[in-house]
Amino acid sequence: MNGQPQQSVQLTSTYDPYLYQTLSDLMGNEIVVQTTKNTLQGTLSGVTPDHIVININRTPFFVRIQRIVWVSPS
Questions:
Q1: Name one Pfam family in it (predicted).
Q2: Among 52, 46, 47, 56, CA closest to 64
Q3: I need a surface site. Which of 17, 26, 62, 63 has the fewest CB within 10 A?
Q4: Helix (H/G/I), strand (E/B), else coil: 9
């Protein structure tokens, strides 16, 4: 392509395996999560390396793990 070498794209992200494991262990339980903006309380229904899903009154809330300050079982 135009005689120029191809450049590769590298994606990087912060991943905290300890927090991920702790959150995975809390799946299905009621939790309280303090974010950089507010506090949420509900049932933890999903955990991925970059976000969690908290169900509050049957409404899913997606929270980026980078925005979590602390987590506690409710």
A1: DUF2642
A2: 52
A3: 17
A4: coil
Q: What sign for the dihedral angle of Cα 12, 13, 18, 23?
A: negative
Q: Is the pLDDT of residue 46 over 60?
A: yes
Backbone angles phi, psi at 66, to 5 degrees: -65, -20
For 29-73, CATH gives 2.30.30.100
Q: What is the pTM of this model?
A: 0.79
* pLDDT value at residue 14: 73
- Residue pair 71/60 in contact (Cβ under 8 Å)? The answer is no
Strand partners, 63: 52
